[in-house]
Amino acid sequence: MVNPRSNSPSPQLSSLLRIVRLVWEAGRGYTVAWVVLLAIQGLLPAATVYLSRFLVDELVDAIRAGASWETASPVLLLAGLMAGTLLLTELLRAALEWLRTAQAELVQDHISGLVHEKSVALDLEYYESAEFHDRLDRARSDANDRSLALIEGAGSLLQNGITLVAMAALLIPYGAWLPPVLLASTLPALYVVVRFNRRLHHWWRETTADRRRTKYYDTMLTHSAAAPEVRLLSLGPPFQLGFNLIRRRLRGERLSLIRRQSLAGLLAGVLSLLVSGAAMAWMVWRALQGLVTLGDLVLFYQAFQRGQGLMRSLLGNLGQMYSNSVFVGDLFEFLGLRPKISEPDRPVSAPSRLVSGIAFRGVAFSYPGSDNPVLKDFDLTIPAGRTTAIVGPNGAGKSTLGKLLCRLYDPADGGIELDGIDIRGISTEELRRMVTVLFQFPVQYHATAAQNIALGDSVSEPGSADIESAARAAGIHEVLTRLPHGYDTLLGKWFADGVELSGGEWQRIALARAFVRQAPIMILDEPTSFMDSWSEIEWLERFRALAEGRTAIIITHRFTTAMRADLICVMSDGHVVESGSHKDLLANGGLYAQSWTAQMEVAGGRSKSALPSL
Ligand code: ADP
Which of 32, 136, 184, 500 places its Cα 20 to 30 Å from the Cα of 542? Predict the structure, then answer.
């Protein structure tokens, strides 16, 4: 698997810059307003401290001179200014709170959009690897919160930085050495934050698979699809045990990391307290000698105290930003993945209707991560405008043909042609629009019945007449009309008022979805597996009419379905071992004929209606 992890000397800085770009893309106006307000808010604390010095000195003078309007008015003016500054600080805080929430929402949605876009764009090969799922999980779980924390960190850094510079400027008149002492007293805290956040991230990456396993247990214990088996087989306790064992270990490891971090943080805090105590003692000594005024003492105390607090949070911000940028690196690592199914440089147009047919030529294919070839030097020609059945035992490679034809995977060798055009020369979007597929395990969409069908063709958005005729062709129309709100009934139980269907009914809904898509090639994987013999015969008659003129491929292990096709190809072990019509194949006396006879005997022995299958 490609590892697009940044090789740049400073991946944290590049993550930070990319996040800043994301924030900018998510909401430009908000970002500008946010930066301006932060800068003003950064200056206000220094203004308050500065004013407090004059206020105290004026107050001392006024007390000395005795109470009168002349002595009180400068004090009142300064007090008014001070109150105005404090009010402005509160106003800005409220405005920033609102802005921050608005921006967080925008950024979160923007990042989710990017992750969703990338997840859909990446091909199935990625989904076969556990490493990819680890990445996806990290990108989804940490990146959102961490990105926001990174922005918050950048904001605080800006605001605290401005305040700190202003406070340092206030301290310089008392000694140019004061700001460097301030800085030195907080360095141990920075060291603690950076070191422990690195450790935490390392631990987080190492344990991604464990966290995903807890999610798996959680899903098994709570998901409706697993609920019947979990109850019947009493799987609750073992799954809970599995969950608890992993959680206990993860919890222990995390708490031990945090415990060590807290201890180191405490030591760093005590150190900075000692420095601040010494500086204050020095200033009090000077005040006692009459070298500075009471107002100076007040200013110094506030500026040093707050400066030290600011310095700590500033360095904390930097440390947090460092660690968040390491986590956000996971998001960019995920967003940097590239689909492996490449688009043609100069795509050729797909034929709007097939004239000669589909040809697999010398195709070799193994699933990613597997050494077992599913197809080896595989040749097959499927005639245009006819119905071809592909039969064969489980695992013969039948379903794989459909996936290769849609370019969900590319073969390692050989190629697939539509009327002589290699499908790799057609854009994947156009190619996929040519094909409609009923997968063996179709998705059950928690949407209305009509929407479930209409999703088959999101481009031409079928109307209710198209939806109904697809439902009739799939043999589900009557069932849908009996639902509480007919076609507008919500299917599935995830949302309020949803109605559950049987497995066979869901299968027919998926079939209707495949039918509603007006594509020249139809691939149906086990379309009759849920049907009893009578429905199967009735459905096949309807299907033949619907498939008229289209190139249809039916993948099946049922002879009774296959026998009605124009051409039957028998697959075994990744090869086509015979092909022809039902009659020809029976006359040949090969694998098809033997399996047919054997199955008919078994079926006849068991019940008149049992279906023969390969
Ligand atoms: P059929 O449709 O004939 O039952 P498939 O085409 O589904 O067979 O599968 C052919 C072989 O490929 C089987 O041995 C199966 O185990 C393997 N296979 C199918 N899907 C995957 C996958 N996603 N990853 C790895 N192997 C797979």
Answer: 500
323 or 443, greater pLDDT: 443
Please tell me the distance from the alpha carbon of residue 374 to that of residue 391, in angstroms, as a whole number.
15
- The Cα–Cα gap between 113 and 133 comes to 18
Distance CA 271, CA 187 (A): 10
Q: Which residues contact 582 (CB under 8 A, 6 or more apart)?
A: 562, 563, 564, 565, 568
User: What is the whole-number distance in angstroms between the Cα of residue 392 and the centre of ligand 1?
Assistant: 13
Which atom of ligand 1 approaches the CA of 400 most closely?
6
Is the confidence at residue 566, as pLDDT, over 70? Answer: yes
pLDDT, tens digit (0-9, with 9 covering 90-100), for 108-148? 888 889 989 998 888 888 888 888 888 888 887 766 677 77
Closest residue by CA, ligand 1 atom 16: 395
Binding pocket residue ranges, ligand 1, CB within 6 Å:
128, 367, 370, 374, 392, 394-400
Instruction: Give the three-state DSSP class for 523.
Output: strand
Output the CA 414–ligand 1 centroid distance in Å.
19
Percentage of the chain lying above the pLDDT 90 cut:
33
Cβ neighbours of 366 (radius 10 Å): 16
Q: From ligand 1's centre to the CA of 400, what distance in Å?
A: 7
Spacing, Cα 125 to ligand 1 middle (Å)? 13
Kindly report the pTM of this predicted structure: 0.72
Tell which one of 399, 441, 526 to mutate to probe ligand 1, the residue whose CB is within 8 A of the most ligand atoms: 399
